[in-house]
Please model this.
Amino acid sequence: MIKIQNIYYMLAYAFQILKSDAYSFCETEEFENAADLLAAILENGIFIQIKKRGLKRDYIESREVSNYIKGKIDVSESIKKQTIINHQLICNFDNFSLDCYANRILKTTIQLLIKSDIKSHRKKSLRNLLLYFKDVRSLDIKIVKRINWNMKFNKNNQSYQMLISICYLVLNGLIQTTTEGSTKLLNFLDEQSMSRLYEKFILEYYKKHYPELKPSASYINWALDDGMDNLLPIMKTDITLTYGNNVLIIDAKYYSHTTQVRFDKNTIHSHNLYQIFTYVKNKACRGKNVSGMLLYARTDELIQPESSYVMSGNRIDVRTLDLDCDFDVIRRQLDGIIEEFFNNRGDLSV
Model:
């Protein structure tokens, strides 16, 4: 379980722009569900984008049968289609247009939110925003799961980064394509979307409050005797905290079930434990004092993992983070991890 308001705080850490006065209403307004919250953020964000910078435009490759030369002539197609008979040519050219990929994602997300369970006044505002997208095509909702989210952001379009990320959460959390090809609305949010947000929130929280720990999603090299790493998978941590010779590797896990059941017995997810153990042991080979932690988002299940182990000389903890409480409590939980793993060793003043 997670309080709706805490989704906002998690997003605010992931995207610092949400901590500006323009989004301060999210801290006090009561939202009916996560879709309503994300609709409010997207509505406000797009309005600010239109007011301050205008919607993004980009060069879109277009093709047109024309009476005059425009761009580059497609000679073979012109001959094949026999357009020359009518004194016309098929031309390929770049059109500076609002109908870019990012705007198509925004429009599709707005249309989906209007169909979802959000407040009526929010739906009205979103419909008004659609007027600015009249020259933008919508994406086919049946193939929305194949959207390419690997967009590059720079100083010219960085204002879109938060907007597109909100769209990712909405489109992956609100729809499902069935085997028959039809679509239906899901309960918000899905596990995959929340997992991504949960991981980024914890990393950004530590970056904000503990920069001296150099928080990062860092890579770990395999400790190989012969250096032959062909076909070995890449090891990338969710969160790595480093202070002096001490390292804490955190794997953030957001599951509907915090434990697995084998032969009527609850145990830690085996693949999670194998993964964090591998990270820790390979990092420890670099001469560091390395600890590891599996940090699950707490569920309402009766059995919750809260254990500490020493494995081959390294400490590995399994904890839960309660997200269904006031955010001050969440803050104390995250700060407590730092105090326990660093301050008690005399390495850090928290």
